[in-house]
Amino acid sequence: MTVRWCSPVFFFTTFCILTLCNCSSLCFLDSAFVTCRNPSFSRITSSKKTNNPLPVETTFKIPAPIPIWPSGNGFASGTIDLGELKVSHVSTFSKVWTAYEGGPLNLGATFYEPVSVPQGFSVLGYYSQPNNQALYGWVIVAKAARSDKSRPALALPTDYTLVWSSDSQNIKQDGFGYIWLPVPSSGYKAVGHVVTNSSEKPSLDKIGCVRSDLTEDIETGNWIWGPKSSFNVYSSRPSVRGIEASSVAIGTFVAKKDKDAPSLSCLKNIKNDLSSMPNLNQIQALFKAYSPVVYFHPKEKYFPSSVNWFFRNGALLYTKGQESKPVQIETTGSNLPQNGSDDGAYWLDLPADKTASETVKKGNLAEAGVYLHIKPALGATFTDIAVWIFYPFNGAARAKIEFLTVSLGRIGEHVGDWEHVTLRISNFDGELKSVYFSQHSKGSWVSVSNLEFEKENKAVVYASMHGHAAYPKAGVVVEGKASIGIRNDTCKGKVVMDTGSRYLVVGAEYLGASKIVEAAWLNYARKWGPKISYNIDEELSRVKKMLPGFLRSKFEGMIRSVPGEVLGEEGPTGPKWKDNWSGDERV
Fold first, then answer.
1. For every residue of 419-456, which 3-state class applies, written as one string?
2. Where are the domains of the chain?
3. Does residue 28 surpass a pLDDT of 80?
4. Taking the model in full, what pTM does it have?
């Protein structure tokens, strides 16, 4: 165990050093990543407005042109049939109103009207985003799939209700802004707001309302903006998400007082025939274009391997009650117990031989590959490609305790570490829209406009030292509170993994069982490592003895608050037994 002490004279210097990667050279560090993650990171705020152009004044474009995808099915055809509605994406906007303060970084937000709408389609809602990032977004527009004069799928609103206006707000703004809620006729629902820069009500043909049976409930997502009051603007997302969910995101915003329920709905894919999903050739082309590049910390000791390499080099299967008779696992995992539940009846472990065990712990990057699970998202209007990486071993954790960095001994160590990132791709045109970075028990979605890219459209992923959590920027993220928590150090080292060079599609249920043959190990439902054999309380006691008295209680409180997965209490289950295999990612 090591404790880094900092004298009062050098307190500030040490504190600054703690915000840098623990590597031989300085790394580019985004302010968003020198922060607390509880449960997810947030950006440092500033109330000053400069004369420099706002990031939102620049429109983001993905680095390289979108390829021409292999033909087949309805993928990337520009429109998707939801049954009663045909929908399309619009990403061209005309600015309506801008606030210059409030929201992330206190830079305000801008509200836009969708333009260049395809002929025959109706706008369903306006778009908004914070000013602290380049303009990049989309909204869905729709038209009726068939003529039905008695019960049309779309109808004009009967009126508007003023939700909020800025004319009485003491904020920096470009004119005045007014946010309106469409008043639908009986049997219809509003799915988006209208924004004007005039107090006059918008014309009724500005927006369409949707028949109630073609809608689903929503919830608020990310915070977009809020002035100095309880009124706030959020992104919206369907309340129910996952492989079998039919809810379709609109891409619009929700404006509401904090305690109010969302006043809008989203669309529903009642057809749900998955014809907009990519076929195998298209999946391969998509991953060739977007496969992430993973950078490892210069001091990383534990690298990925293939599952077959792990088995071939002596991994053992243990059975409860027969611990003295472990079984060598076949290279393909064919002798692993299939399906069942995580009942503790079996677990995997490293080779019994100490030398072999240390070798396997380090992994084998040269033979490592990634495992892909392809699944529909948001009513099959998007395709999620979950990119799973296997590590034979997860290393010990380190903690940031005020101005100290402390090794936690064996805490955090466990055998078998499954980590992943997920690519979310639009089924309208095949463009990558966002990437999910898994970080221990949860994670975060990041828009492509906030990503670092290499090799044209390949997103850069930074794997944290020893823990292998995924982040979009190099730096340090603290799991816990601002001044105390588990450190996640990332840095652009020389060791890198291009996930597109070796991959295997292990799941794509919508294609049918005949298209993808599942590996035996995928259906192993138990743990990929044993429950820890050491006493966490004893390990913590050793650390606490090295700390000044005033830090001991803070340290113990932090340890008790972080997820067990971070502490490495036992090995994880495999990808198929995670909630996000059939559900949406946890944020």
1. EEEEEEEECCCCCEEEEEEEECCEEEEEEHHHCCEECC
2. 79-268, 280-307+362-581
3. no
4. 0.89
